[in-house]
From TrEMBL:
Gene Ontology CC annotations of this record: cytosol
Origin: domain of life: Archaea
GO molecular function terms listed in the Swiss-Prot or TrEMBL record: aminoacyl-tRNA ligase activity; ATP binding
UniProt keywords, alphabetically: Aminoacyl-tRNA synthetase, ATP-binding, Ligase, Nucleotide-binding, Protein biosynthesis
Identification of the protein by name: Glutamyl-and glutaminyl-tRNA synthetase
Species name: Thermoproteus tenax
């Protein structure tokens, strides 16, 4: 059985990771009393220790909290992770700075062919980070350069659907999908705004009346 200080540290780290880097002493105390009824007679004594450990945890950065929890109690992270996220190797991925509240990642294939190993790798890696931290995975088809990379749509192969099917086979689920060629009006509008912002704002001064 874990000693009391280690147990409280684990609960404080779990609470902090769950709630954006700030552990709550009352929540940690409630969890302890719920799971360790034998400690209830010592509640007043333990309360002081809880407050000390919560203060220690809250002095850490969210990344430090997550790293310490993952290194000492990885099984605690497994317990709070949805079933989909329980995939081998995710916890061993290099940490991303400032990602504890979730990430937005994207996979942007050119639909001129089916996926190959080189293009599948970033899709899987990005999705793994989405599972590690939570957030959003975006699938964005880059198909606005038909002269160099013409989209592949024939009777035999539709690259858009083939890529979607390959991602499903890899176990990658996307939250949003965009096809760039269908969003040209949006790009033109922002290009127009940028051009307007770049235009000179100064005007020539008028000559004073009576000046020669």
């Amino acid at each position: 059985m874990e000693n009391l200080e280690d147990l409280l540290l684990k609960y404080a780290l779990l609470n902090a990771v769950k709630y954006g880097g700030r552990a709550d002493a009352k929540a940690v105390m409630s969890k302890l009393m719920a799971e360790r009824a034998d400690l209830r007679p010592r509640a007043r004594e333990i309360k002081e220790l809880v407050e000390q450990l919560v203060a220690k945890v809250n002095a850490m950065s969210p990344q430090e909290q997550y790293t310490l929890l993952a290194s000492r109690w990885p099984e605690a992270l497994e317990e709070r992770r949805p079933r989909e996220e329980k995939r081998p190797g995710i916890d061993s991925l290099p940490a991303l700075p400032n990602a504890e509240r979730g990430v937005v990642v994207r996979f942007a294939p050119n639909p001129d062919f089916v996926l190959h190993l080189g293009s599948a790798r970033p899709a899987v890696l990005n999705y793994a980070y989405k599972l590690k931290y939570g957030g959003k995975f975006i699938l964005r088809f880059e198909d606005t350069d038909p002269k160099i990379k013409r989209p592949l749509i024939t009777e035999e192969v539709n690259a858009y659907e083939a890529i979607r099917e390959d991602l499903r086979w890899l176990g990658v689920k996307w939250d949003e999908e965009y096809i760039q060629s269908q969003r040209m009006e949006i790009y033109y509008e922002y290009a127009r705004r940028l051009i307007e912002l770049a235009e000179p704002t100064w005007t020539l001064a008028r000559p004073r009346s009576g000046a020669s």
